[in-house]
Amino acid sequence: MKLQALRPIFYTTELEATIRFYVDILGFELGEKNDDWGWASLFKDAVEIMLAQPNLHTPFEKPVFTGSFYFNTDNVDALWEKLKDNVKICYEIADFEWGMREFAIYDSNGYLLQFGQPMNDLP
User: Fold this and answer.
1) CA 22 distance to own-chain centroid
2) Which residues contact 107 (CB under 8 A, 6 or more apart)?
3) Which of 28-42, 47-61, 82-96 is the least confident region?
4) Cα-trace Rg, the chain
5) 66-123: CATH topology
6) How far apart (Å, rounded) are the C-alpha atoms in residues 21 and 87?
7) CA gap 96, 64 in Å, rounded
8) What is residue 4's predicted lDDT score, i.e. its pLDDT?
9) Domain extents for the chain?
10) Conformation bin of residue 21: beta by default, left when phi > 0, alpha when psi is -120 to 50
11) Superfamily in which the 7-54 domain is placed by CATH
């Protein structure tokens, strides 16, 4: 048995605003959207994210996730320069002892998104 992909679903009550954040700010493309389901699929390169309005049977007060979503990139410095003035920053770009150069931001719902590149892959 082989796992082939991980496609997280982010719950949001602000579906349109969340789509705009990922498309306009992060450069994702809208793959599919179903207003009846309150659902959308976004993709960029090898990454796919689904967005969903919470079901009525799912307890939901606000978006909560106890971890972060970590994206590996091939040019973390260029991505930082593109995003830093248009997002809420958790921590600025820095080199870390575990060999990654990374930064973290919050999406429009408050989910923590980290972006990193191995330091041995830097130009």
Assistant:
1) 7
2) 10, 18, 21, 22, 113
3) 47-61
4) 15
5) 2,3-Dihydroxybiphenyl 1,2-Dioxygenase; domain 1 (3.10.180)
6) 9
7) 26
8) 82
9) 7-54, 66-123
10) alpha
11) 2,3-Dihydroxybiphenyl 1,2-Dioxygenase, domain 1 (3.10.180.10)
The partner residues of 51 in beta bridges, in order of sequence, read 10, 40
**Quick one: average pLDDT of 62-88?**
93
107: helix, coil or strand? coil
- What's phi and psi for 119, nearest 5 deg? -65, -30
What is the enclosing helix (H) or strand (E) of 29?
strand 29-34
The label of the residue with tokens 């919050």 reads: 106
Please tell me the pTM assigned to this model.
0.90
Cβ(40)–Cβ(30) below 8 Å: yes
Give the max Cα distance, the chain. Answer: 50
